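Write out a sequence, fold above all:
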Amino acid sequence: MENDRWLYALALSAVASSVSGLLVPLYLVQIGGGTAQLGVNAALSSLVGAPAAVFAGRYADRTGNRRGVVLTALVAAALALVALPFLKTIAAVIVVNAVLAFSLAAIGPVVTMLVVGDSPEAEWNTRIARLNKLQGYGSTAGLVLGTVWTVGVGAVLATGVTQETLFVLAAVFGVAAAAVAFRSLPRHADLTVGPRRASRIATLLSRTSRNVRDDTFSFGTTRVFWGVRSLSRRRLGGLRSQLPAALWVYFAAAFLFFTGFAVFWAPLPVYLTDRAAFGSGAVFALYLVNNVASTVLYDGAGVLATRHDIRLVQTGALGARAAAFVAVGVLGVLGVGFLSTGGLGPLLAVAALLTVVGATWAFIAVTGTGIVSRLTPKETRGGVLGLYAALSAVAGALGGLLGGWIASRAFDLAFGVAAVLVVAGGLVVLLARHLAPDAKPTASADAAPASD
């Protein structure tokens, strides 16, 4: 496409969604929500994403009105952002946030259709990578904005008012995204999407979309749509017999560690504000540190995964992440007085641990896609990668509920359970040696580092 200005609408939307992704849990805590409510919020946001992506994608396929679907979703997201600061009940915030999550998830697959619409297939990788890079920049900018706003404005205004004004600012970005999209979205994008092309798109998305948001806030709903879209009924029915046992074993391992990740993340905002006595600005800064740690290591993770036993790389990353989970819990148990001061020392301690958590995600994301790709026949690879994303979404919903429920009894117990699940998943990967038969596998395009 000659005019790609509409891509900037998606960057603006990413800023808004990045701000709201952390602001909503903090706001829930501010209005009286606890860990159980945060768990429900996280679970519901994960569960609505995949159906939204599939519904919107299929509707756009059937009607051809891709511009209309994207505009409707952006407007719905903007309206949800506008409404959030006026809501004062926990249930209302959770429901409206689910609407926001549904709208944002609906955008992904249709935007991908527009990105690759009239481009030669040889350019798809570059164009999808550019889209994800702009969205990645937007997500990082959102966390920077949240940090600066809550620190600066929070020094003058009360916490509740600061959060409400930040919602207003996020809504401004959401409305701006809808306005830019209205003016610049292409009206036509010629793309006939059969199973082969859908599989190709799903594979490209898995190689270029390893954004940290998949780990902290949401799961790969766009990849779910394209994966399902690539599987005909005949292929879907034959998957059970076609796929090797090693892949099913890996799926079991992935379900365990993805559940563990969500158990950790769901109650974390309450832990940081209540147990550690950090303000909203400090919490945004910590999530920003986690984001940056992941982003800067994707290339290195890809190189390491192509030079060493991919099984050992992932298991090592899972072990380090589990240790960081435990350390966060131990810090709360042994250093309650230290944490409750909310000063620079506790902030640096937690930042160091979340840096480890973020860094390990880069290696887990890269190696996970590599393992699934190597164990899957080429003709069904995109579909299976979509199923892998769906599995992570289901595990995220279960983990969110479990993490919120356990943390309502004890934070250290929740973080300990998260670590146990991650270690269990790592052990399954480690023991299933046939996942990586070579100690030093050859480089694979499917295991290439992400461009974000």
User: Anything to note?
Assistant: The chain has one domain: 7-447. The chain has 18 helices and no strands. The CA atoms of residues 25 and 388 lie 27 Å apart.
